[in-house]
Amino acid sequence: MTVQDEPRITDREDIAKRLLRSSAKASFDPLVEIDWDAPIDRDRYATRPERVSLYGTELWERLTEEQRKELSRHEVASIASIGIWFETILMQMLVRHAYDRDPTSNHVQYAYTEIADECRHSVMFAKMVGKLGAPHYKLDPVTQFLGRVFKSIAHGPLIFGGALFVEEILDQIQREAMVDESLEPLVRAVSRIHVVEEARHMRYAREEFARTWQRHNPVARAYSRLVLGLVVYYSTTRLINPRAYAHVGLDPREARRAARRNPHWIDTKTWAARKVVATLGGAGAISGPGRYFWRKAGLLGRPGNRPAVPTRAAAR
User: Fold this and answer.
1) Which GO-annotated molecular functions does the record name (predicted)?
2) How many angstroms separate the CA atoms of 282 and 246, rounded?
């Protein structure tokens, strides 16, 4: 697909009907599907070592193997806390999206179905955080405030572009984790459920983003690019709460600086975002001032090692 060729949009009702059918066949109750009584295996990593934000740094070399595994558990818990935060925002946005639409339509009924899924996911993530022995990594006041603003002002492309970004990032990390038998079984079980159900959510968001993006004029698109860039920046730079580093004896400020500059961590974020960058970049949603925030968040690669992001000029 080239940028000047608008993507083919399938029938909204037909897609929603398929997603509703899929939900009926493959939905899970995490409280039943997961063995919450099983003890955490502290001899295993919660995520692959190379996905830990400090991997390869001098601070990583200071840590014992036990501390590295502990840090992996806290980083997974921190990412799960971000997931809960954004899923709560998404549920509110989906309720607003459905508010004045026909509830007898498949489209709105799937929105309600996704809200129910997200409720279960938030409970599942919260229980996992507790089992991993981590606290609830609450976001800083500025990000909390911006989240309140975003959920109140977001319209079509912002609702579904923001949702697609967060869902794709988590999906890539969890797809890798769920098939790695060396990792903590609880994390793998949570990842498996989330990946299966989020596949439907991403299809819904991808279709609706493309549909609403095409209807917007250039001014509205420019506004959406900027706000989406801010959402991406604040979500990505808060993935790892600095307090996670303190739990393994590191200075949070020093560790945060090291992670921000760590080429391995930048590459991990670029890898996790590659599909959503291709989707939104191909639509022309990553350009102008908003693109600055995508790059500042470490999602467009390191200088000299940058993945291509489709632009209209390049497409021509």
Assistant:
1) oxidoreductase activity
2) 40
Q: State the Cα–Cα distance between residues 207 and 186, nearest whole angstrom.
A: 32
What pTM was estimated for this model as a whole?
Answer: 0.91
Residue 296: give the domain boundaries. 12-315
CATH number (domain holding residue 99): 1.10.620.20
Percentages of the chain per state (helix, strand, coil), in multiples of 5: 70, 0, 30
* DSSP string computed for 155-194: -HHHHHHHHHHHHHHHHHHHHHHHT-TTS-HHHHHHHHHH
Structure tokens at 288: 């102008």
> Does residue 213 lie in a domain region?
yes
What does the pLDDT look like over 171-228, one tens digit per residue?
999 999 999 999 999 999 999 999 999 999 999 999 999 999 999 999 999 999 999 9
**To the nearest whole percent, how much of the chain has pLDDT over 90?**
90
Instruction: Give the three-state DSSP class for 302.
Output: strand
What's the structural domain count of the chain?
1
Q: Which of 232, 213, 236, 227 shows the shortest CA–CA distance to 282?
A: 213
